[in-house]
Amino acid sequence: MISLNFTLLPINITEFNFWYFYSRGKIKENEHPFDSIKRELFEELELEIIPIHEITRYPFKKFNLIFILCEPINPKKIKLKEHLRFNWVQSDELLDYNFIEGDIKFIKSF
After folding, report:
1. Which tens digits make up the pLDDT trace of 72-108?
2. How far is residue 74's CA from residue 84's CA, in Å, rounded to a whole number?
3. Which residues of 70-81 are buried (b: 16+ CB within 10 A; e: fewer)?
4. Whole-model pTM?
5. Which of 15, 28, 33, 58 has the fewest CB atoms found within 10 Å of its own CB?
6. Domain containing 68: what range?
C-alpha cells in the first residue's frame, strides 16, 4: 500500500530471510481493484484505506500486479493478522529493504 508520504511494508519471513512486500491478494470475480485492496488490507491488518488511483500494473510470472495509491484512515490502529510486523517507510528508503522479486520493478521506477 502506498500512501502520499509513506509506504506500508508488511513483513513475512522465509526460512532464511525477511521479505518485504506490498499487500497482495486475489481480486475476486467482478471485484474492482479498489474494492480488493480495501478488503485485503482490512483482512490482513484491519487497516482502512481510501484508494486514490492506480499507479501502474504489469504482468509478473502468472500474476497481474496492480499498485494503487491509497490514503490510510486508521494508520495507528493496525492489527497484524498474517504478518510478523510492519514498517511505515519513506519512499526514498525503499531500496534499503529486501523485496520479493515481483515488487522490485515497481520500486525501481517509483
Report:
1. 888 888 888 877 777 777 777 878 877 778 888 888 8
2. 19
3. bebeebeebeee
4. 0.77
5. 15
6. 6-109
